[in-house]
Specification:
2 domains
């Protein structure tokens, strides 16, 4: 009797956990998809004429400005940022044979797990995969003493664990089994 009174008192009619899961699922989808896609980003510097803001016309002297333009291409792919690759290369506890495959698969696995979570296809499996990826990234950051990044990824692991606990309230999915 008490449980039904609590459900009525909350006003949610039992959908609070479902809404919480959908919000968390949405955040994890955005995080995984955009992080994976950003692995294919790069910047290109282009020159454009300097424009007078008052007139909107190009500067008569022919002055040019350099603009950095972001673009995406398969050839830009880098799973691990170049600034960290040297640090990882000199870390004796990091299995060097595993670094190249991890670097090659990180972006595609983030995109795959994000798409699976978005579609609700293997929700638990995709959440578990994200958790494993964040744990692996955390281990790497701990080894190169990037403690701020490791703590930040710890929050991600906590969010994935919470999503796994709420997965029984999964709605808007193609498959509930996994």
């Amino acid at each position: 009797m008490q449980a039904s009174n609590d459900k009525q008192a909350s006003g949610g009619g039992g959908c609070d956990s479902t809404l919480a899961f959908l919000v968390l699922r949405g955040w994890l989808v955005v995080r995984a998809l955009l992080t994976g896609i950003e692995k294919f980003a790069s910047f290109q510097t282009i020159q454009q004429p300097l424009v007078d803001p008052a007139t909107g016309m190009a500067d008569p002297s022919g002055a040019m400005v350099d603009l950095k333009v972001k673009y995406y291409a398969l050839t830009n792919y880098s799973g691990v940022p170049a600034s960290l690759k040297d640090k990882f290369a000199h870390e004796p506890l990091l299995p060097h044979f595993a670094f190249a495959p991890f670097d090659a698969l990180l972006g595609p696995l983030l995109i795959l797990s994000g798409l699976m979570l978005l579609l609700g296809l293997g929700t638990r499996a995709s959440l578990f995969l994200q958790g494993l990826l964040y744990i692996a990234l955390t281990a790497g950051l701990v080894l190169i003493r990037q403690d701020d990044g490791a703590a930040y990824l710890g929050i991600h692991v906590g969010l994935v664990a919470l999503a796994l606990m709420l997965a029984k309230h999964n709605r808007l999915c193609l498959s509930k089994k996994w």
